[in-house]
């Protein structure tokens, strides 16, 4: 599914977004629209170089070991069925991984932090270390983790500009989460980010 093109201008300053950003753990059930989802994914990992391949977040050696997934709940995003989707950076599009509302299962895999299931979407940032260790050896694992942090902050700040709130979650069972999400085992989840309107 092709996502709407991202906007490159907004009305909230970066300073205001930094000042307002908080980890929010109680969300309204109100759906996001497709433009908001598009904007969040672009801020996470979208291409920002005209005619090029470089992305919103910095990446050691421009090797881009990260993949971004969306766990969309039932009526989580207008015009999108509940399911798990992979963000295809090149085409700025979403491809389905699996169908059905998996938020409860993702929350259970996250040491039963059930509040997560109340957010309309959960963005999952994963790393395939081989794409960066091939050049940097073991140090590449550190680089991928640093990159995940950059992506996470971009999501946080972009959410603020859209009138949305986000949370960040690092406590989960790696294997259970990969199983629940049905993603390649090489795509190791590093951060989970519930996003939605504040309750
Ligand atoms: C790597 C990382 C992992 C985190 N994991 C969790 C988590 O599993 N559950 C949770 O409720 N908050 C988690 N947090 C959020 C922190 O509790 C939160 O950032 C901290 O309390 C500071 O609050 P603020 O983000 O609102 O400024 C995590 C934050 C980071 C950076």
Task: Characterise this structure.
The chain is an alpha+beta fold and 199 residues long. It has a single domain, classed as NADH Oxidase (3-Layer(aba) Sandwich). Helices cover 32% and strands 19% of the residues. It has 6 helices and 6 strands, in the order ααβββαβααβαβ. The chain has helices at residues 14-20, 34-45, 103-109, 130-136, 139-161, 174-181; strands at residues 66-72, 83-88, 93-99, 121-127, 165-166, 188-196. The chain has a 6-stranded antiparallel sheet with strand order 3-2-1-4-6-5, with helices on both faces. A hairpin with a 4-residue loop joins strand 2 and strand 3 (93-99). The mean pLDDT is 98. Bound molecules: flavin mononucleotide. Flavin mononucleotide is lined by residues 22-23, 25, 113, 168-171.
Ends: how far apart?
29 Å
Total count of helical runs of at least 4 residues: 6
Number of domains: 1
Say how many strands there are. 6
Largest sheet: 6 strands, antiparallel
The percent range for strand residues is 15-25%
- Dominant shape: globular
The class by helix and strand makeup works out as alpha+beta
Note the run of SSEs as H and E: HHEEEHEHHEHE
List the helices and strands and how they pair.
Blueprint: H1 14-20, H2 34-45, E1 66-72, E2 83-88, E3 93-99, H3 103-109, E4 121-127, H4 130-136, H5 139-161, E5 165-166, H6 174-181, E6 188-196
Antiparallel strand pairs: 1-2, 1-4, 2-3, 4-6, 5-6
Bound molecules: flavin mononucleotide.
